[in-house]
Amino acid sequence: MLILEIYRKFKYGIRYSSESYISHLRKIGVGIGNRTTIFDPRSTIIDESRPWLIKIGDDVQITAGVTILTHGYDWSVLKGVYGEVLGSSGGGDRKQRLHWNA
């Protein structure tokens, strides 16, 4: 079993097990509750571009093939209608955000 686990770690990286993938997601800022399981981390896609926008509660079971995004298709629609669309849900330091809101 030890050899199989080492092989999986080498081949799949952070997605080799539910526990390792959840640990990685928590480290980057995704809120994940207790007793959460990702049944097939290799086929599950969780958007890591804005991890602070994702909150997963306690006792959640995520099955194979699930995709969780922090964005929608709406930006693509707006870009098609108006051309280049500038904007995002974050970025910059505090001073820049205060300047943008002023």
Write the layout of secondary structure elements.
Elements: H1 2-12, H2 18-27, E1 31-32, E2 37-38, E3 45-46, E4 55-56, E5 61-62, E6 67-68, H3 74-82, H4 94-101
Parallel strand pairs: 1-4, 2-5, 3-6
Summarize the structure.
This protein has 102 residues and is α/β, with parallel strands linked by helices. It is built from 4 helices and 6 strands.
What is the distance, rounded to the nearest whole angstrom, between the alpha carbons of the first and last residues? Answer: 59 Å
Report Rg.
18 Å
Secondary-structure element order, N to C: HHEEEEEEHH
Give the fraction of residues assigned to helices: 25-40%
Q: What does the overall shape look like? A: elongated
Q: Which regions are unreliable across 5 or more consecutive residues at pLDDT < 50?
A: 91-102
What's the rounded overall pLDDT mean?
82
Number of strands: 6
Strand order of the largest sheet: 1-4
Described by strand count, sense and barrel closure, the largest sheet is: 2 strands, parallel
- What number of structural domains do the residues give? 1
Q: Give the percentage of residues in beta strands.
A: 5-15%
What's the helix count? Answer: 4
Main structural class: alpha/beta
